[in-house]
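Open question from group meeting: does this chain pack into something compact, or does most of it stay loose? Before anyone orders reagents, we agreed to write out a predicted structure and look at it together. Recording both the input and the output here so the notebook holds the full record.
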Amino acid sequence: MHNYLSLTDLNSALAIPDLSHGPHAMSLLLGSIVDALESQWGVPASMHRLNPLVSTRDNYDRLGYAPDDVTRESRYSRHVSPTVMLRSHTSAGVPALLDTLRTEQDRYDTLHVLPGLVYRRDAVDRTHVGTPHQVDLWRMKARGLLGAGDLREMMGTVVDAVLPGARWRATPASHSYTAAGQQLDVWIGGQWLELAECGLAAAPIMRGAGLDPRRWCGLAMGMGLDRALMLRKGVDDIRLLRSNDPRVVEQMSDLAPYRPVSVMPPVVRDLSLVCSSGVDVEVLGDAARTALGADADVLAALEVLALTAAGDLPTAAAARLGITAGQANVLVRLTLQSLDRTLTTAEANIIRDRVYTALHEGPVAELIAG
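C-alpha cells returned:
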C-alpha cells in the first residue's frame, strides 16, 4: 500500500529548480564531464531532459528491481498514483530511451546523458536532501564491443573531469540493470568517498526494450551531481548549493574552490516524540521538511538519538507520554542553522514546535514557543 502525494505536494516538488540546467556550477560540471567523454571516445553526446513523472514500471520493473524491493515503499519514494511516481533515480528514463533505439539498423555509438532532479524521502543532514541531482551516462553501441577496459576508461575520464588528478578505485557492486557492476570511489581528505556506480548494460534490460544483446552493448554510469560538485568545490553543506546569500551565489557561478563565508551559529533543539514503532530517520526527515515548507532550509540536521518501544519504557514515563502498544518514544535532535542570518531563540522555538507537531503522534503535546 502506497501513500500518494497530494496535488499541493506534487506541485511543490515540481517547482524546485534544476541546478544542472542553467547558470550554475553544477551545469558547468556536468558539461565538463560530457565534454571529457566525448573527447575521449570520439562519439557524439545526446542530452535528454525528461519529465520527472515516470511510470512505476520504468522506475522499477524494467530496470530489474524485485517486486518486494524495499526502495518501492512510500517511505523511500514518492508515488503519485498506482502506476505513476516522481522518479527516484534518473535511470528511470533509460527504458524509454532504449525503446527508441529499436529501429536503429546501422552502426551506432552514442553517449546518452540523462540529468535532473530525483525525488526521495531521505535523512536530513549536511550531505542529503530529498531532491538531489543525478545524471545517468549510457554509452550505447551497435555492431561493436564494449567491455571492462572501456568501463575502466570511462571511470578514469569521469574522475579527471570532476576531480582532476584525484586517486580513485573501483570495487565490485551489484545493480539490477548492469553486469560487472562497480562502485567508483575517490580519495578525498584521507578517506574513500563514493562518486558513482557503473557497469556494463545488462542483457535483460536491453532485451526488454527489444534490443538484441548479440548486436547491442553498453556502458552505464549513475552519479550524484550534488556530491560531485561539493567535492569539486570543497563545499561541506549541501544547502549552500541553493543559497541566496550573494557571497555564496557568486561562487556558484564557477568551479573554483569554495571560499567559506561567515557561518551563522547553530541552534539545537531536542524532541521527545511518540511515533509508530517502525518509524525511521528518512520518514521523519521528509515529514519535517514538508512541515517547514519554505523554511526547510534552516533545518541543517535531524538525528535520531534513541528509540524505545512502549513496552520497554518505565510505567511512569509511558503514562506521562500517553504512549500505546505499537508506538515508540523517539528522541530526536534538530540542528537549526540559517545560512544567512542568526536565528533568534523565539524563531528557533517556533520552528521546533512546527516539527514537533508534524512528527508527534501522542495525545500529550509539549510545545515551548508559547
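Observations to bring back to the group:
The first strand starts at residue 45 and ends at 47.
The mean pLDDT is 92.
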